[in-house]
Amino acid sequence: MVLLEEIYDSHIHSEGRSQKELTEMVKAGIKFANSCAFYPVQPRFAETLIDLFRKLEEFETERGKRVGMKITPALGIHPRCIPQNWKKALDFLEENPPRIFGEVGLEEGGSLEVDVLKSQLSLAKKLDVPCIIHTPRKNKVEMTQKILEILAELSFPENLAVIDHVSMETVSEILKRGYHAGLTVEEGKLSEKDVLDILKKYGAERLMINSDTGFTSLEYLSTSKTVSFLIERDVEREDVIRVACKNAKEFFRVRC
Amino acid sequence: MVLLEEIYDSHIHSEGRSQKELTEMVKAGIKFANSCAFYPVQPRFAETLIDLFRKLEEFETERGKRVGMKITPALGIHPRCIPQNWKKALDFLEENPPRIFGEVGLEEGGSLEVDVLKSQLSLAKKLDVPCIIHTPRKNKVEMTQKILEILAELSFPENLAVIDHVSMETVSEILKRGYHAGLTVEEGKLSEKDVLDILKKYGAERLMINSDTGFTSLEYLSTSKTVSFLIERDVEREDVIRVACKNAKEFFRVRC
User: Fold this and answer.
1) Cβ within 8 Å of residue A17, ≥6 positions away
2) Nearest CA of chain A to the CA of B157: how many Å?
3) N or C: which end of chain B has fewer CB within 10 A?
4) Phi and psi dihedrals of B82, rounded to 5?
5) B45 vs A41: CB contact, 8 Å cut-off?
6) What is the domain count for chain B?
7) What is the structure's pLDDT at A218?
8) Cβ pair A18:B15 closer than 8 A
């Protein structure tokens, strides 16, 4: 049963899900999604990323259309996908501004990762494009702190950054600084109960849920299940709508 | 119910199927598959193909392992995926010989396509590597004829070529020339009944079935369904084993 007309999964990798599964997502109410650039082996060439961006823009959005899902591509250089000639991919993004930068961020936080992140954030600021910023599983607190410092250093606009895959430890500081927080509901990340707790403690204003589903994760319906969970726990409908759809629509400027 | 212990789907694009669906394929008996190189938008760069080859070799085979499917990558330049600097991809294949070339072939049959096909076939002959040769939906008879002429011109070894997506019109000539024929069971290609008819008319010796499942096709279990259909129609078990597994295992030199 679909308890909400429209759900926006703010972070998926649609390439890793079949058309059949995208159809099931739509049936479960997930009619909007951002498909984030990622390459499952470290690419040797920026050219691979450029063709990947084209694939997301042309092919993945089309696959979405076929099943009734509005897919917005998020284009960028993931910290685990940095090729040697990465500046060529950045040049492409400057010449072909994406609707969303993503996912960008830090994985281990070395100087190359920091350079790549800063370059992309500077470009996003210049172009006024919202950014999906990845935080890693390991050293999440430390890496989140580093990202927040970079954002401060760049005087990055609050309304252009969602820090994603937040944990119970990182969410508070992120919201305090005025950024949005992406709540990823997946084994090893947040549970439905964690989402409820965060929502109760901090309010719905700058939260958005996602599944991060893609090449390996099996949980492509986790946003829909979270919606059911929240409604069953008597969370106000307006708040559920905010975290499950409205906030993301506003933040990513998606109309429909 | 699995009616055959082992099925070999000789032509898929595993990238387009989720891990969940690969698991379902294994449960339906499909424990072997060739994952053919294809890029769903025409790549601008050979570099994209090189990283795609690495993705198939490293990531897709690993995804297969996780669910119990032996995935053999087929690497090559598809006639719809020819970048300007395609020779760089060919050089990569010469330096890193694949276990299978594929899918190569003709789509519209222009001179660039013919050049790319001949270069790859020459390399495959030199390296003694089996080839999966694509024939298109449109002008299938004409394009198949053109491919057969190219194979003859190159004195291409019969035991290295499977001509794929054959039709009722093309299969006879292909088998007469000594090549293997790939029977793709999918809407718009062959039906289960077509496979039965071909098998009865020509014998099982050089036939192999596949689904061509991938980025858009929904029919990822069609080889398993075809096996059930053939067994229900009282085809000899030895013949079903040949077209569903044994021929492909021998042709592609896959052991397990």
Assistant:
1) A25, A213, A214, A220, B18
2) 34
3) N
4) -95, 110
5) no
6) 1
7) 75
8) no
Identify the band that residue B150 occupies on the pLDDT scale cut at 50, 70 and 90.
Answer: very high
For B18-37, the pLDDT digits (tens) are: 999 999 999 999 999 999 99
Q: Is residue A236 part of a domain?
A: yes
CB contact under 8 A, B59 and A48: no
Judged by a CB distance cut-off of 8 A, whether residue A218 touches chain B is yes
Q: Do residues A113 and A79 lie in contact, with contact meaning Cβ atoms separated by under 8 Å? A: yes
Within an 8 Å CB–CB cutoff, is residue A62 touching chain B?
Answer: no
B209 found inside a domain:
yes
CA–chain centroid gap for A156, Å, is 18
The pLDDT score that the predictor gives to residue B2 is 62
Interface check A155 vs B, CB under 8 A: no
pLDDT in tens, B171-220: 999 999 999 999 999 999 999 999 999 999 999 999 999 999 998 777 99
Decide if A40 and B59 are in contact by the 8 Å CB cutoff. yes
Is residue A186 situated within a structural domain? yes
Which domain range does residue A215 map to?
A: 7-251
What's the pLDDT at A1? 57
In a 3-state reduction of DSSP, which class is residue A157? coil
Q: Which one of B13, B17, B48, B59 makes the best mutation probe of the A interface by having the most chain A beta carbons within 10 Å?
A: B48
- Give the pLDDT confidence score for residue B5 in this predicted structure: 86
CA atoms of B3 and B231, how far apart (whole Å): 8
Could you report the per-residue pLDDT of A162-182, keeping only the tens digit for each? 999 999 999 999 999 999 999
Phi, psi of A84 (to 5 degrees): -60, -45
Q: What is the CATH number of the domain that holds B58?
A: 3.20.20.140
In a domain, B2, yes or no: no
Task: Report chain A residues whose CB lies below 8 A from the CB of B55.
Answer: 39-41
CB contact under 8 A, B41 and A47: no
Instruction: Work out the pLDDT band at B1, boundaries 50, 70, 90.
Output: low
The minimum CA-CA distance between B37 and chain A, rounded to whole Å, is: 14
**Contact at CB, B17 and A18, closer than 8 angstroms:** yes
The pTM score is 0.96
Using a CB-CB cut-off of 8 Å, the residues of chain A touching B62 are: none
Residue B229 vs residues A166, B28, B168, B224, B232: alpha-carbon distances, Å? 51, 14, 18, 9, 5
Interchain contact, B21 vs A20, CB within 8 Å: yes
Provide ipTM, 2 decimals. Answer: 0.95
Stretches in chain A below the pLDDT threshold 50: none
Q: Tell me, yes or no, if B200 comes closer than 8 A to chain A by beta carbon.
A: no
The kind and range of the H/E element at B112 are helix B111-127
Mean pLDDT of B62-90: 97
Cβ <8 Å between B48 and A48: yes
